Amino acid sequence: MSVLLVTLAFLPAAGGGILLVIGRRADRAAPWVSLGIATIILGAAITAFTTRPTLTAGFISSTGATLHVDGLTAVLLPTVTAVTLLVLMFAVAEKTKPAARFHGLMLLFAAAVVVTVSSTSLPSLLAGWEIMGATSYALIGFHWQQPRTIPSGFVAFTVTRTADLGLYAAAGAAIASGVSWNLTDLSHAPAPWVHVIAAGVLVAGLGKAAQLPFSFWLSRAMDGPSPVSALLHSAAMVAMGAYLLLRLEPVLHASGWAAPTAAWVGAVTTIVLGLIALAQKDLKQLLAASTAAQLGFVVLAAGVGSTAGGTAQLIGHAATKALLFLAAGAWLAAAGTKQLSALRGVARRWPLLGLLFLAGALSLAGLPPFALWWTKDDVLAGALATSPALYAAGLLGAVLSAAYSAKMIAVVWAKPDPRERARFENRLWDAEEKGTRTVPAGALAPILVLSAGTVVLGAAAIPGLSGPFRALLGATGEPESTIPELLVSAALAVVTAALSYWRGIPHIPGALTWFGLERAAVAVIGTPTLRLADTLSRFDQLLDAGVDKTAGALTRTAGALQTIDDSLDAGVGRTVGALTRTAGALQTVDQRLDRAIHHAASGVLGLGTLARRLQTGKISDYYAAAAVVTVAAVLLLIVVR
Amino acid sequence: MLSVVIFLPVVIGIVLATSRRLPAAIIRWVWVGTAGADLLLTLVLTVEPETGRTLRGEQRWEWMPGIGSSYHVGVDGISVPLILLTSIIFLVCALWSVRAIDRPRPQAALFLFLQSTCLGLFAAQDLILFFVFFDLSIVGMYFIIAGWGHGNHRQSALKFFLYTFLGSLALLLGFIGLYLGATPHTFDMVALSQAGAFTGTPLVAGLVLAAIVVGLAIKTPTFPFHSWLPPAHTDAPTIGSVVLASVLLKMGTYGFVRIAIPMLPDAWRSYAWVIVVLGLVSVLYGALVALAQTDVKRMIAFTSINHMGYVILAVGAAGIIGSDTAAAQQLAVTGAVTQMVSHGLITGALFLLAGVFYDRTGSYDLRQYGGLARPAPRFAGFFAVASFASLGLPGFSGFIAEFQIFTGSIGTTWWALFALPGILITAVLLLRAFQRIFTGPTENLSPGFADLRRHETIPLAILMGLSVIVGVFPGPLLALIQPAARIVVESLTP
C-alpha cells in the first residue's frame, strides 16, 4: 500500500467531499483547506516522480484499482497538480464564491484526475474518468442562478458521456475476448474484439479531448468560471482525453485502422478548430477552440506513435493555456467582459498582465523560443515520418495557431485613442458581470509562474536535449524534429502572425458558430430521441389502456359465469324449497341444508362474497377467472406429462 | 435466529395493532426501535462465521409433509444482501415517519407486517413458503396504497393487486410444474436446485419456465408487463413507494436468480435469448418513456423499469454459454445482485425526495417548479447526488452494479452493447429534471418551499452514504455475493 498514492487520490477526494457536505459553514476555511491539500498533493506528485509507487486495491475485480506511476504518469502528475495549485491560488485571490462548494468540487475533480492519470486498470480509470465529467458539470454550472450555465454543463456532460460509453464497451470487449482489464493487456485482445476496444477507446478519448465531431461541448463549457476553464479545459480534463489516446496508443495500433483515424481526426481538428478560433469574438471562446486545436496535435501524435512529442505538447499546452485562461479571467473580473471588441488595449491598462499574456500567446502561436514551437514540431516530425500529407495538414494547423494567437495579441495590445477607449469602457465593460477594475497581486503570481512554464517546458522537445525526457517515457526511438523543420515552422509562424497582426483576419462563414456542430447534434440525435420518447410514452398509455380493457373483458366473462352460477343457485334453491314444502317435519334440517348448499355453490364457482366485502367485487370475479385458468393449466400440464 | 429476524416485526406489529391506547409518539419510536433491532439482528447473521453449510441460519420444520413442503428458511450470498437491504429500507421508512400524523398505529403495524413478509420471502427455501410470503406482501402493499395513498389511489391499488396477483398465479402454476417435475415430488428449493432435479421433457420445462418468467416479469416489472407500476407509484404514499421500488420489485429479480436459473438451467439456456431481449427492451423503453415524463414520481418509476432491465439483461446473458464465458457469467450474475441492492438504496432515496414535493406543495409536476435550489439548497444537493447515483456515476453503488452487468453481459453476447445508451438516456432525463426543478429563476411553486428537515435528512443521508460506501469500497459486498453467484453459474454449466 503506497502512502503517496493514497495521499494523492484520497486526500483531495476526502477534503473535497467534506467541504461539500459541510457547505456554507465551511466557506471561510475552504480556501485554506484547498490550498493546503493542493500543496500536499503537488509535493506528493513530485516525490512520486522519483519513487514511482504502485498501489493495488480491489475494485470490482481483485486488481480493479491499480494505480502506478510510470514515466508518462510521472510527467503528468506534477503538471496537473501544479496547475491545480496555481489555479486555486488564482481563485482565492479573485474570491470565487461560495468558496466551500467551489473548492470542494475542484478538489474532487483533482482527485478524479489523479486517479485517471495513474490508473493502469480499466475500472479505476473509468471511475476517475466519469467523476471528472460529473464534477465538470457541477463546475460549469457553478453559478446555477444564471440561466445558461447549468444547460451548458448539461451539454458538456452528456456529450462527453456519450463518448464515455466507448470505455464501457471496451471493458466489456476485454471480458469477451478473455484479456484482463489491465491497460497493457488490451492490445493483446484477439479480433474482432480488439477492434471494439480500439473503437471504444478512440471515441472516449476524442470526446473528452473535444476533438471533432464532439468539439462543441467545449464552447458551452466556457460558461463556467474562469479558474474552471483554466484547470478543466486546458491542463486536466480535455487533456485527459488526449492522454488516454497516448496511453493506449498500442491498442490503436493493434487494430490497424484506429491509429491512422486518430491521426487524421487530430490533424483535421487542428485545422477546423483553428478556423473556428480565428472567427471568435469572445476571448474565452477563442481560447476554447484553440484548446481543441492544440490537443489535435496530441491526438495526431498518438495516432503516429509519437508519444514523446505528444506528451511534451500536452504539458507545454497545459502551462500555456492555463496562463491564457487565467489572464482572460483576470480581465473578465476587472473589466466585466471577455468580448474582444471591449478588450481592445486592455494589456496597456494592466501592462504586467499584458506582458504575461503576450508570453502565453506567443507560445500558442508556435513562435521561437517558446514551448509550443518545440513541442508541436516534435509531433510534426512524427507525422512526417508517417505521411507527408499528415505533416502538411499539421503544418496548416500550426499556421492557423499563429494567426489566431496574433489576433488576440493585436486586440489586447491595440492602441485605441482615448475617446474611443472611454466610449467602449463606458458602454461595453461590465456587460457580463460587475468589473472590479483591479487585478489583485495574488492573481498575478500564479500567472507569472505559468509564464515561466511556457518557456522552460519546451526543453522536453528540443532535439538533442530531449534525451532524458524520451528515456523517461521509453520513447527513445521516435523521430525528432530537425533544424530545417524547426526553421520552416518558425518562418511560417512569424509570417502568418505578422500578416494576421497587421492585415487582420478574413471573414470565415459559419466559423463563429462553430460550424453549427451543436445545432447539428441536436437535430440529428437530440430532437429525434425526444420525439421517440414522446411516441413511446403515448404507446405506453395505449398499452396501459389495453391492459385495462383486457381486464374489463375478463371481468365481464367472470360476470357471465356469475350469472350462470346465480341461476344454478336459484335452481338449487327452488328444488330445495319444493323439498321443504313436501317434508314439513324436516323443515329445520332442510333449512340448514339449504344454507349449506347455497354456500357451497357460491363458494365453488364465485369465491365472491368474502372478497366482495373486501373491495368492489372485481377481485372476486378476477380471482375466479384466474383460478379457473390456473386449474385448467395444471390439468393440461398433468395431461401433457 | 433467522426466524426471529423474520417474525420479530410482525409480532411487534400485532402488539401495536391490538394496543389501542398507546400514544402515537410511542408507537412511532417502537416502530423505529423494532426496525433498528431487526437490522442489528440481520447484521449479526451477516457477520456470523461460515459454518461449512451453504446456507446461513438454516431452519427446517415439518409443515405439510404430504405435499413435500416444509417451513424451510436459510440465507446465502444472494439473499443476505437483500435481507440487509430490506431491513435498512424499512428502518429508513420508520425514521421518515417519525412526524407522520395520519393513523400512525395501523401504519406502523402494516409496515411491520410487510417487513416480515419481505424478509420471509428472501429467506424462504420452500416454494410454498415463498409463494405465501409473495402473496402476503401483495396484500400488505395493497392496503398501504389504498389506505394511505393519494390521487386515484384506490384504483391504482386495485390495479396493482390484480396485476401482481395474476402474476403470482402464473408463478404458482410454475411452482406446481416444478413440484410435479421432481422425483420425489417436493417443493423444497434446495432439493429442486440440485443438478438434474427437474426430470420433465424440454417442452414441459419450457412451459414451466414460461409460467415462472411471466410471473416474475410482472413483479419485476419488465416490458410489456409494467403498466401497473407507474400508477401504483404515483398514487402510493411516499414510504409505500420506497418499499415498493426498493424491496418488492426485487422479489421478481430475486426469483430469476433463486428459482428460474438453478431449477430449470437447461430451459434457461435454451430461452436465454428471450430474456436478453426482454432485458434490452426494458432498459431502452424504460429510459425513453421516463425521458418523456413530466411527473417526477412517474419518471422515477420508469427509471426503475430501466434499472431492473439491466438485471434481466444480466441474468439472460448469464445463460448464454460459450467457451470461456464463466468469468463473464459470474460478473453478470454478481452485477445483477449488486444492482438489486444498489437500486434499492438509490431509488429509495429518489422516492423519498419525490415525496418531499408532495408534502410541501401537493404537486409532482416538474414544470411547476424552477430555481428551487434557492429556497431549498439541501434538498437540491440531495436530489443532485441521488440523480448522479441513479445515472450510474462511479463513486456510487450503481456504477459497481452496472459496470459488472455491462462487461459481463457483453462478455457473453455482443447484443448487450445495445443496452449502453440506457445509462446515457438516464443521465439526460435526470439532469434535465434537475435543471428544470432546481435552477434558473425561482418561480411558480418554488418560493417559500421549506428545505429538508432533520427527520428527512437522516434517512436520505443513510441511503446515500451506503451507496457511496458500496461505490467506493465494493469489496465486502462483492465478497458476499460472489460465492453464491458462482454456484448459480455452475448450475448453468451443462
UniProtKB/TrEMBL annotation, chain A:
Major localization listed first in the record, in broad terms: membrane
Pfam families: Proton_antipo_M (PF00361)
InterPro entries for the chain: ND/Mrp_TM, NU5C-like
Gene Ontology, cellular component aspect: endomembrane system; membrane
Highest taxon of source: Bacteria
Transmembrane segments: 6-22, 29-51, 71-93, 100-120, 190-207, 228-246, 258-279, 286-308, 314-334, 355-374, 389-414, 443-462, 482-502, 622-640
Boundaries of every NADH:quinone oxidoreductase/Mrp antiporter transmembrane domain copy: 119-400
Localization in the cell: Endomembrane system; Membrane
Example of a GO MF term: NADH dehydrogenase activity
Gene3D superfamilies, alphabetized: 1.20.5.2700
Signal peptide annotation: none
GO biological process: ATP synthesis coupled electron transport; electron transport coupled proton transport
Entry keyword annotation includes Cell inner membrane: no
UniProt keyword Secreted, yes or no: no
Membrane topology: Multi-pass membrane protein
Protein name in the entry: NADH:quinone oxidoreductase/Mrp antiporter transmembrane domain-containing protein
Keywords: Membrane, Transmembrane, Transmembrane helix
From TrEMBL, chain B:
Name of the protein in its database record: Oxidoreductase
NCBIfam families per UniProt: NDH_I_M (TIGR01972)
Locations listed in the record: Endomembrane system; Membrane
Keywords for the protein's UniProt record, in alphabetical order: Membrane, Transmembrane, Transmembrane helix
Family: Belongs to the complex I subunit 4 family.
Organism per entry: Subtercola boreus
Pfam family name, one: Proton_antipo_M
Main location: membrane
PANTHER family: NADH-UBIQUINONE OXIDOREDUCTASE CHAIN 4
Transmembrane region(s): 78-96, 108-124, 130-148, 160-180, 200-218, 239-259, 271-292, 299-321, 341-358, 379-401, 413-431, 460-481
InterPro entries reported in the protein's UniProt record: NADH_Q_OxRdtase_chainM/4, NADH_UbQ_OxRdtase, ND/Mrp_TM
Any one of the GO BP annotations: electron transport coupled proton transport
Any one Gene Ontology molecular-function term assigned to this protein's record: NADH dehydrogenase (ubiquinone) activity
GO cellular component: endomembrane system; membrane
Bilayer disposition of the protein: Multi-pass membrane protein
Record-annotated NADH:quinone oxidoreductase/Mrp antiporter transmembrane domain positions: 124-420
